[in-house]
Write a structure and sequence with these properties.
The protein is an alpha/beta fold. It has four helices and seven strands. β1 (about 20-25), α2 (about 35-45) and β2 form a beta-alpha-beta unit. The longest helix is centred in the last third of the chain and has 22 residues, at about 145-165. The chain starts with a helix and ends with a helix. It comes from Imperialibacter roseus.
Length: about 170
Amino acid sequence: MNWIFSFLAAALICSSAAGRQLSIYSTGFGDNAEQIIEQARFYADELNIASGQPLIVMVMLSHNLPDNISGMMVHGENEVLEMRNVMIKLNAALPTDDLNRALAHEMVHVVQYARGDLMRINNTMFRWQGQLIFDSASIPYRQRKWEKEAFSKEEELKKGYKKLISH
């Protein structure tokens, strides 16, 4: 995974030089790479993503996620480079409609991270809106506040993108 963040660092330097606050890249999608980037950018725009620092998002199609995980978001920061980066992994086994929903869901987490509301500290510890959650596993998945927000927005985002591309 270090090569991904190295790539993100290089991409950040290039995107910062170009004056971009949000850069989105994809890997593993073959001929659909541009469509995934367009879709992620649509979600970011709909969610009014804002970040004090340039933010790079890498969307990756993963063949290594368990069947019960549609997607996940991992973030990192480099204060020296003033770099914030996010990797979204989407489960390659998902049908297209579920993949689109998972991307919308994970983009909500990207926005939560960009706002400073969500930070994953380790596998079970998170910071949500300034409050440390020491054992997130003790909270049912759909009851976690950051997940509630993501679930509440994913379907509307997905439908909005479908409407955009159907015209």
